[in-house]
Amino acid sequence: MLRVAVVGSGPSGVYAAQTLVQQREVPGVRVDVLDRLPAPYGLVRYGVAPDHEKIKSLQGSLRTVLEDERIRFLGNVEVGGAALPTSRLLELYHAVVYCVGAARDRLLGIPGEELAGVHSATAFVSWYSGHPDAADEVFDLPGVDTAVVVGAGNVAVDVTRILARGTAELAPTDMPQPALGALADSGLRRVSMVARRGPSQGKFTTKELRELGTLPGVDAWADPAELALDPLYTDPGAAAAALPAVARRNLEVLRGWAGEPPSAAPRRIALRFYLRPVEVLGGPGGRVTAVRFERTAPDGRGGVTGTGVHEDIEAQLVLRSVGYMGVPLAGLPFDPVRGTVPHAAGRVLRAGRASVGEYVAGWIKRGPTGVIGTNRPCAKETASSLLQDAAALARRELPGDPLDALRAAGLHPVRWPGWLAIESAEAELGRSLGRRSVKIPDWPGLLAAAGSPGPAGP
Ligand code: NAP
Questions:
Q1: CB of 196 shorter than 6 A to ligand 1
Q2: Which of 294, 322, 350 is the last residue of a domain?
Q3: Which of 30, 94, 123, 244 has the fewest CB atoms within 10 Å of its CB?
Q4: Looking at residue 115, which CATH number applies to its domain?
């Protein structure tokens, strides 16, 4: 039997586990899927926006995999800490596949970023998604009339949409009650989503962009003069020749909005382009009042140059949404520039050589790019490297059932029935609030629902 630990139960971890047990070349593979959290599914549970129910429903197929009898889910198990260093994990399993994602946000690196009211989109997403590490985050929404979101990727679109949506649309989701209440109390009227480059260079996908124009009570708008700064916007023929289909379709959506007269909708989303943030401005009490941007111009090579012209956009809330970054895991090599673990076809490289029994998949392998489905081929590549190595790996004798060793180390793994108990408790919480299932947003609540005697470590 080949015993494998997959660390992380998000899409890349689950796809890796699925590939390992469903293949036929190496019989008898058993996989434990470990997660630091008591709940599975990673970013599908804690990153996909609550109003994107179709993408959320992917949890159904991830569940089917985790319920396979050859796979065990072990939640509430932190790898890389004192109780379970990576070296110990490798003693307990023939192989370990790290699928730990990219948990950190990037900073803008400009003055004023530390002012009250400036947050990372990652923190905002974690908060409204009920991530237990974000239970103490405070978003002072009632005082917010206008918000600025810096960045033009799908996360920026997500947070812009959630800010602009009405409570009636969010209430049927599983958003935790405190976040729903705070968003309901906000008097927000305007969200500006600001890109440093042009409309043809937005990182968002068309479906997500288009959705901003379909929200009830919300007017999506882009300034025609600003769009026209992009040569590929003004010349559809050149755009058709030079751009991938997604960028061309994005331009069509923006053209539609630019032609629309302003409506009387109570809330407005403004898409702004060619503005790079240079300073966050604060007022009395150290709270953000505006973001200062420098107007940029295309440099003809896909980048932009500064023009020395500045514009301040008022904001009482600023979310920087400029990409995720991997965090080093103690005991694993790490490339601090790329924010990933060095690898060759998924085999972890130590000093340039493949480390026996250690693998990576997902964002910690390739960086924070792609949609959920991108993780499937990524995990498959890693799994096939592991399976090629299987004969040599399986020769090592293991000390016994790793679960006993985890418990002996003072850990309290949450097994699958514990997770199902969390699900039931969330359904019950929803019923008590007159809503559908509602997430439990804190560690004590999750562990109590799972019937777990204690926190992650001793
Ligand atoms: P992203 O797609 O890499 O977008 C990052 C954005 O930040 C870009 O517009 C980038 O502009 C901008 N940026 C970077 N540094 C900046 C700076 N210093 N100042 C101003 N702007 C800056 O990252 P993401 O939005 O975090 O998304 C991560 C991944 O998750 C993506 O693959 C995304 O598609 C995926 N995702 C998908 C969905 C969905 O399918 N519904 C939802 C959420 C996330 P430049 O282009 O100029 O660098």
A1: yes
A2: 322
A3: 244
A4: 3.50.50.60
